[in-house]
Amino acid sequence: MPELPEVETVRRDLEDYLVGASFTDVKFIDFKNVAPEATFLAKYLEKAKVTALRRKGKLLIFDLEKAGDTDKHLLIHLKMTGQLVYQLGTQTKAGGHSLSELDTKSAVGGDLPNKYTHAIFSFDSGGKLYFNDLRKFGYIKLSDTAELEKTLTANYGPEPLEKSFTLSWLTSILAKRTAPVKAVILNQKLIAGLGNIYADEALFIAGINPGMKAHKIKPAKIEALHEAIVRVIKRAIKSRGTTFRNYVDGKGNKGSFIKFLQVYQRQKQPCLQCGETILKAKVAGRGTHYCPSCQK
Ligand SMILES: [Zn+2]
């Protein structure tokens, strides 16, 4: 699943091509997660110009301008298996979930549209943006500013790299909760954009057992966790995300953060710090990787 660093990479890559371009035509194919109703949304987007491409957590936000109206925003969430592919002439930029682990060409969409294409956005630049989604959990939505602000406030906490993600914020959200620390830091309403890979890595760096009850963590460890979350996300964005079999970035390249992974998907291998065997367990409903010796 694309996480914050992967979605940020897609955003940065698409920004150059889409900001300043206007939609000329929009088609939805066999896709229900569209709001408002597909024909209405398609009609609104015609001649609407993209003025900015933003992101909050894993949500992509296209700011729009149409005939003086700047109150509308197009929201795209890739969820588990969503992918965006932009084609202009012979150029292809793709990001999100890859449809193939072996074939680079189909990893960035292959011939488009394909059977997973659920939306095609055409632009006055001649480019086309394809939204492909294997499992159709992603969504596309038109929102006005007030509704968008409401959604963001209700569903997204501070991001790791925002100023509002302070040590005192992390301390306060952990102190109030008896759930496992991993469940708390994965909760998007408390910290936006931290997903499974980076949560496991940050807890390892901080030396905290993922199953530890949040309110029992000592201040020194909370400080270490705060630092670790910021460091991991910064480095992951710099590396253009992490690539396993199912993720390619906005240029069709694989993210290189994989070389920095210390516990994620390293179960049964020796801990890089102490040599103990890395374990995998279910915590907060997610496959969780940790060293039983370094993480108490
Ligand atoms: Zn260890």
Explained architecture:
This protein is of the alpha+beta class and 296 residues long. It folds into 2 domains: 4-155, MutM-like, N-terminal (N-terminal domain of MutM-like DNA repair proteins, Alpha-Beta Barrel); 167-290, Helicase, Ruva Protein, domain 3, CATH 1.10.8. Helix content is 28%, strand content 25%. It is built from 8 helices and 13 strands. The chain has a 6-stranded antiparallel β-sheet. β6 and β7 form a beta hairpin. The model is unreliable at 99-109 (pLDDT under 50). The structure holds zinc ion. The site of zinc ion (ZN) has 7 residues, from loops.
List the helices and strands and how they pair.
Elements: H1 4-18, E1 23-28, E2 34-35, H2 38-45, E3 49-56, E4 59-65, E5 72-77, E6 82-88, E7 91-97, H3 104-107, E8 117-123, E9 128-133, E10 139-144, H4 145-155, H5 167-175, H6 181-186, H7 196-206, H8 219-238, E11 247-248, E12 279-283, E13 286-290
Parallel strand pairs: 2-10
Antiparallel strand pairs: 1-8, 3-4, 4-5, 5-10, 6-7, 6-9, 7-11, 8-9, 12-13
Helix pairs in contact: 1-8, 7-8
Zinc ion binds at residues 271, 273-274, 276, 291, 293-294.
